[in-house]
């Protein structure tokens, strides 16, 4: 019903119609999830997204439209991520499929999980500024200028942070035996 509308058209409707709000959030949820996974890891991303959805719903009436809605939304997402990182984390073990998988699938899944865990560990080892710039670029495929707007920094700063993050991740992975 609302999917054909652009964000700038949908935001005023979303302030008074929950279906418009849901359409707006559905549009951005996959990218918000990617940012949250990149910053807090997959195991904490769902909790962060719940906070983002609640915060966005409460504060949509305050969105002035000075920036693009997506810029505002990603800033809220990153703030929720950093708030989650400051909280002590409980150990969470994800539930696996109950059907016994084939041996090939187990080996493949184990390799994928190991690589994902290494990448998450590598991302967590980055300074926050590098991690957020890298996440916005790599997980959301944002343009450098848009990242600069989201982060409130100069374009050159974004480029530098992303370059440093890539180099640090490459070094991190090489030290753990991952070959390009």
Number of helices: 8
CATH top level class name of the largest domain: Mainly Alpha
Q: Mean pLDDT score, rounded?
A: 82
The count of DSSP E runs of length 2 or more, i.e. the number of strands, is: 0
CATH superfamily of the largest domain: RNA polymerase sigma factor, region 2, helix turn helix motif
Shape: globular
Taking the alpha carbons of the first and last residues, their distance comes to 46 Å
The fold-level CATH name of the largest domain is Rna Polymerase Sigma Factor, Chain: A
Helix content: over 70%
Our estimate of the beta-strand percent is under 5%
Query: Could you give a short account of the major beta sheet?
Result: none
The appropriate CATH architecture of the largest domain is: Orthogonal Bundle
Q: Report the uncertain regions.
A: none
- Report the C-alpha radius of gyration, rounded: 18 Å
Estimate nothing, just give the exact number of structural domains.
2
Keywords: Sigma factor, Transcription, Transcription regulation
Family: Belongs to the sigma-70 factor family. ECF subfamily.
Protein name: RNA polymerase sigma factor
Pfam family, one: Sigma70_r4_2
